Amino acid sequence: MSQHSPASPASPAPHAAPASPASPASHVDSSFRPATTVVAAGRPAREPGAAVNPSIVYSSTYVGDETPAPGQLVYSRIGTDAWVPFEEALAALERADQPGLLFGSGMAAITAALDLVGPGAALVVPRHAYHAALVAARVLVERCGVRLRSVDIADTDAVAAATRGEGWDADGGGPAAVVWLETPTNPMLEIADIAAVSRVAHSVGGIVVVDNTFATPLLQRPLELGADVVVHSVTKYLAGHSDVTLGAAVTSDPDLYASLRRRRTFGGAIAGPMDAWLALRGLRTLALRVERAQENALELARRLVDHPAVLAVAHPGLPDHPQHALAGEQMDGYGAILTLCPRGGAAAAARLTGAVRLWLPATSLGGVESMIERRRRWPDEARSVPEELLRVSVGIEHLEDLWADLDQALRVSQER
Ligand SMILES: *Cc1c(COP(=O)(O)O)cnc(C)c1O
């Protein structure tokens, strides 16, 4: 797959020029499996004596001439070589026909994608999703009259009705311009049928955006299922070491690519060279990390089901998950996030997060280190998320150490 050829023939303005054509020679063959692509993509050209990793160059601007050639680097906010290797790798993983777009955070990519909703247009969102994405969607309602339709994204009929506008006539928005999916959702782990929702959205002229942070392109490739744009918090699994804050957007559509790129250029939420390099460094082990973490997660979920201190456990890999079958069809694995409700309510959950010694009580996920958090400690979290629900991001430590610590913390959670 050839990445970073100029995206759109209609992008002549120098300030909108695509990233450098002098990109690393791609070692990505479209027949490569994802576990190979994460290792092989985004390498410098193979020449005797050449470095095997991209260099880190700090330069805010580039030597110019009167009329820059298409793709010539002109200024770092518009495009820099630092982003190219990661963008090439991510596009190959998501099977996109355009390069990926690296952003300064997941929220920067998300707000750029939310900007695709025009004033007064209808936007379908999951009732549960990454809380800041929903806050950003509500800002669009206040600022430009966007019609927000909040649905259970696991209920495909409800999503279809909201997309067509059926039963939503009162808001005057008509068919939805954008359907926003997150699957599995954060933190409730609901699964949306990406292919079915994409068919409905396209039948009314809308587009589908999928936040693929939880699944990663190793387990789920929304563009192949018909979605139009994928966004990521690269902060999480893709970088994977809890050491950078980054985001990305990926699409195969040249016009959507140009829009998202414009938003990055003029919004200015860009990645620094060192962070972009660290993201690529982290990506190299994505397949191994995801494989180990989801193996750990499924086994912990199975054990937790029978734990006397546990009221409820959810994980897409458990047979009693409501969308277990759909997850099995749509994904290449069930992921490494689970949720857990201890007996004894929010107080017990808080005692648990206070008692862990190996697990990190912290608000992130997708790192090598296992993390656990009571989501409702945040005022912005949806009220329908149970007070005692713990979001559990399982890392790559030894399963038995994770289990021993969780088991002792669960016991502490039941003490009063
Ligand atoms: C963390 C997260 C985000 C936000 O990403 P940042 O890099 O923190 O800006 C968006 N979506 C999901 C699903 C997340 O978990």
From TrEMBL:
GO cellular component terms, semicolon-separated: cytoplasm
InterPro entries according to UniProt: Cys/Met-Metab_PyrdxlP-dep_enz, PyrdxlP-dep_Trfase, PyrdxlP-dep_Trfase_major, PyrdxlP-dep_Trfase_small
Region (Disordered): 1-31
Keyword DNA damage: no
PTM sites of type N6-(pyridoxal phosphate)lysine: 236
Cofactor: pyridoxal 5'-phosphate
Signal peptide, first to last residue: none
Keywords: Pyridoxal phosphate
Enzyme class: lyase
Catalytic reactions of this protein: L-methionine + H2O = methanethiol + 2-oxobutanoate + NH4(+); L-homocysteine + H2O = 2-oxobutanoate + hydrogen sulfide + NH4(+) + H(+)
GO MF annotations in UniProt: cystathionine gamma-lyase activity; homocysteine desulfhydrase activity; methionine gamma-lyase activity; pyridoxal phosphate binding
Residue ranges with Low complexity bias: 1-27
EC number(s) per entry: 4.4.1.2
Family affiliation: Belongs to the trans-sulfuration enzymes family.
PANTHER family per UniProt: CYSTATHIONINE GAMMA-LYASE (PTHR11808:SF15), TRANS-SULFURATION ENZYME FAMILY MEMBER (PTHR11808)
Protein name: homocysteine desulfhydrase
Organism whose genome encodes this protein: Miniimonas arenae
